[in-house]
Amino acid sequence: MAAFEKPLFTRILSGYTYLLLGLFGSAPMLALTYLEINRQPGLLYEHHGFHIIAISIAIAIGAFITFVTWRCYADSGEPFLRWLTLGFLGFTLIYAPHGLFTPLAHQNPWLFLLYGPASRVVMAACFLTAMFHYAAADAPSKRWRPRTWLIAIAIFIGIDLVIGLLAISPLRAAAWLRLSMEYTAIGLFVIVIAWLITQRIRNPLMVMYAVSMAWFAQSSLAFSLDTAWSHQWWLAHVIFAGGFFLLSYGVIQAYLSTRSFARVYSQAELLEEVLAQKQRAEETMVELQRANAKLERLAATDPLTGAANRRELMQRAEQEAARAVRNHAPPVPDSH
Question: How far is 218 from 241, CA to CA, in rounded Å?
Fold first, then answer.
């Protein structure tokens, strides 16, 4: 009965853990639903100075985490971390004009608004690409190539220029472009989560990765639900920051431990590995005992006849003599 109850209890605990992860991952939806139900279209909080300060802090943190992620990649060589670095780098470079053009929000709101969804699409695309390189490794020579990073920086700056041209163009497609980018980002983040679920990766850092993707997707949803400066719009910033901080925490934990995302194990995996090592040690001990017994037999017998050799006979004689002394046996009389 006990053998049945233990796996059942373990399954219950695992189910409860997944439930908690699901609730935490979807927690922003509760706030989004509340604000959507109690929406007041005329209620805005337009504060350019606060927005510029918040975006400046976000850019500084993004640059710092980009560097930490790159250091992890340089040590481990995981392409997953290379694409994670590119995701953070792309977000930092493309998101920066969103704060820079805040003072122009009234003159040209699209010049101010389009950089946010563009940065999320680029980041989501990089994070999705990282999934296809999970647990792989780059050669040491490839990790330090500056060409890769210079090309990426040029591409991200080029995206900034294209977004700026689209914002000032007379095509009047900026509103549609903004929503399409938000929906694209949502789709990419959801694909990342689905991939992680289907692959059944129990790595705790990848669990953080999945939850942060869920928060990013919900932030894009929040951005698409209302206009700039609304409470829904500000909440979207907070949700995105929550996902970003969670993923940043995972990167720092990787740096402080193994400098890797793939070589960090969950408690269940560690327990399985310990049990496997214990079983292998026990099997090795049994084999060693058998080998020692075989060596003892080979040392005590003649290899051709199997009879005890002189060494074995002398050892047995010494043992019998010692036993006789202990038992006070009378001495054997001399036949001569």
Answer: 11
